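Example 3.2
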Amino acid sequence: MAVKKPLPYSVTKDELVTMYIDQKPQKRIIDQINEILKEKGISIHIKKIEHPEFMEYVGTYGTPKGYFIDDND
Protein backbone atom coordinates (compact mmCIF):
# COMPACT_ATOMS: atom_id res chain seq x y z
CA MET A 1 0.00 0.00 0.00
CA ALA A 2 1.39 3.41 -0.98
CA VAL A 3 1.99 5.95 1.73
CA LYS A 4 -0.13 9.08 1.35
CA LYS A 5 1.50 12.50 1.59
CA PRO A 6 -0.02 15.61 3.15
CA LEU A 7 -1.18 18.22 0.68
CA PRO A 8 1.30 21.07 0.28
CA TYR A 9 0.26 24.55 1.44
CA SER A 10 0.37 25.95 -2.10
CA VAL A 11 1.44 24.64 -5.51
CA THR A 12 2.50 25.76 -8.95
CA LYS A 13 0.22 25.00 -11.88
CA ASP A 14 2.70 22.34 -13.01
CA GLU A 15 2.56 20.68 -9.57
CA LEU A 16 -1.24 20.79 -9.63
CA VAL A 17 -1.27 19.08 -13.03
CA THR A 18 1.15 16.41 -11.76
CA MET A 19 -1.10 15.73 -8.75
CA TYR A 20 -4.26 15.24 -10.84
CA ILE A 21 -2.98 14.03 -14.24
CA ASP A 22 -3.91 10.39 -13.58
CA GLN A 23 -7.47 11.49 -12.77
CA LYS A 24 -8.26 13.96 -15.57
CA PRO A 25 -6.72 15.54 -18.68
CA GLN A 26 -4.22 18.39 -18.30
CA LYS A 27 -6.43 20.84 -20.18
CA ARG A 28 -9.33 20.21 -17.79
CA ILE A 29 -7.10 20.76 -14.74
CA ILE A 30 -5.78 24.06 -16.14
CA ASP A 31 -9.26 25.20 -17.23
CA GLN A 32 -10.67 24.41 -13.77
CA ILE A 33 -7.98 26.28 -11.82
CA ASN A 34 -8.13 29.20 -14.25
CA GLU A 35 -11.88 29.46 -13.65
CA ILE A 36 -11.28 29.71 -9.89
CA LEU A 37 -8.59 32.36 -10.44
CA LYS A 38 -10.86 34.39 -12.76
CA GLU A 39 -13.71 34.29 -10.22
CA LYS A 40 -11.34 35.78 -7.62
CA GLY A 41 -10.00 38.45 -9.98
CA ILE A 42 -6.54 36.82 -10.13
CA SER A 43 -4.59 36.66 -13.39
CA ILE A 44 -4.71 33.25 -15.05
CA HIS A 45 -1.09 33.80 -16.10
CA ILE A 46 0.31 33.33 -12.59
CA LYS A 47 2.46 30.25 -11.98
CA LYS A 48 1.92 29.80 -8.22
CA ILE A 49 -1.49 28.96 -6.83
CA GLU A 50 -1.83 30.33 -3.32
CA HIS A 51 -3.37 28.37 -0.44
CA PRO A 52 -6.98 29.70 -0.60
CA GLU A 53 -7.32 28.99 -4.32
CA PHE A 54 -5.60 25.62 -3.99
CA MET A 55 -7.94 24.63 -1.15
CA GLU A 56 -10.94 25.75 -3.20
CA TYR A 57 -9.75 23.54 -6.06
CA VAL A 58 -9.30 20.55 -3.73
CA GLY A 59 -12.64 21.24 -2.05
CA THR A 60 -14.42 21.43 -5.39
CA TYR A 61 -12.70 18.62 -7.30
CA GLY A 62 -11.52 16.31 -4.52
CA THR A 63 -8.23 15.43 -2.90
CA PRO A 64 -5.74 14.05 -5.44
CA LYS A 65 -4.86 10.37 -5.20
CA GLY A 66 -1.92 9.75 -2.89
CA TYR A 67 -2.53 12.82 -0.72
CA PHE A 68 -4.47 13.70 2.39
CA ILE A 69 -5.55 16.99 3.95
CA ASP A 70 -3.50 17.71 7.06
CA ASP A 71 -5.90 19.29 9.54
CA ASN A 72 -2.96 20.84 11.41
CA ASP A 73 -2.40 23.41 8.63
